[in-house]
Design a protein that fits this description.
By secondary structure, the chain is mainly alpha-helical. The chain has helices at about 1-30, 45-55, 60-75, 90-125, 125-140, 145-160, 175-200, 205-215, 220-245, 250-255, 260-270, 275-300, 305-310. This is ABC transporter permease.
Length: about 300
């Protein structure tokens, strides 16, 4: 297992380097300058030259590329061009925890509801129950998050007045209900469908029939035999959604007015704030790599065959 972990960590290095290279050159290839005001009065060339010199934008691209990469390896993502009173590290420390809390709550809701609903859809003998759960999962996958967020704000906030229509007051307040449910709906639907399919595949396998023949009670069979084996594909699906949800949705945070990482990333793109764009993308890439690594490690805990193959 240790050798597998080392290999995966080493293989993540070129992935992060490619992500950095792409976002660096795409950001700098975007027309315009970080100092463009967007109004009718453009910035004076002399002032622009001073700002370029201060932030090393007057140097060749390869110099900027290597300089930023070296500083990023030391944990310094540089200053923000949009808000020059704080660095990218300050922005990350301020906004990332909000998105992580919001995303973690959404994924927890998706998993805790998705697994029992998926098992219920597979095990129930009533077609109406299975059909209702399948309809909910289909709607969750097909509806974009910004549509769900808008519908919930209009219905629950404007129509009924149960939740705020804009703003963020903390995770355990009414202001978090709409964004949490909006972010949780898509992974909830995916977990339901995947776990239902997996349960249907394993419920008639030999080891399940053997457990029934031995006289085991239905609940232990469902949890220890069927559920554990059906959980592996569901974890893979949940992991693919977790990277997107844990750092927050750009649309959900922008529509609901949440001061999260995703919303600030959108503002940084509009302002051509190169250090924030690059630093945010690198953090996204690291989160994706870490989540994929955790998903792979979970296979060792759930599937004995993975441990046997690794031990050979």
């Amino acid at each position: 297992m240790l050798s597998f972990l080392i290999k995966r960590i080493l293989s993540a290095i070129p992935t992060l380097l490619i992500a950095y290279t792409l976002v660096f050159f795409i950001a700098h290839a975007t027309p315009g300058s970080p100092w463009d005001s967007g109004g009718n009065r453009p910035i004076e060339p002399s002032i622009k030259a001073v700002l370029d010199a201060k932030y090393n934008l007057d140097k060749p691209l390869y110099v900027q590329y290597t300089s930023y990469l070296w500083n990023a390896l030391q944990g310094d993502f540089g200053p923000s061009y949009r808000d020059r009173t704080q660095s990218v590290n300050d922005i990350v420390a301020r906004f990332l925890p909000v998105s992580l809390k919001l995303g973690a709550a959404a994924m927890l809701l998706a998993v805790l509801l998705g697994l029992p609903l998926g098992a219920l859809a597979a095990l129930t003998r009533h077609p109406a129950v299975d059909g209702l759960i399948r309809m909910i999962s289909t709607l969750g996958i097909s509806m974009p998050t910004y549509v769900v967020t808008s519908i919930l704000i209009v219905s629950l906030g404007v129509g009924l007045g149960l939740v705020p229509t804009f703003g963020w007051k903390g995770l355990f307040t009414a202001s978090s209900l709409v964004p949490i449910f909006s972010l949780a709906l898509a992974p909830l639907a995916a977990v339901i469908r995947c776990f239902r399919t997996s349960m249907l595949e394993v419920m008639n396998l030999d080891f399940v029939r053997t457990a029934r023949a031995k006289g085991m009670k239905p609940l232990p069979i469902i949890i220890h035999h069927m559920g554990r084996n059906a959980l592996i594909p569901a974890i893979t699906v949940a992991g693919s959604y977790a990277a997107y949800v844990l750092v927050g949705s750009f649309f959900v945070e922008s529509i609901a007015g949440i001061p999260g990482f995703g919303r600030y990333f959108v503002l940084a793109i509009a302002a051509r704030d190169y250090p924030v764009i690059i630093g945010t993308t690198l953090i996204y890439a690291v989160i994706v790599v870490v989540i994929n690594l955790l998903v792979d490690l979970s296979y060792f805990l759930l599937d004995p065959r993975a441990r046997l193959e690794q031990g050979r």
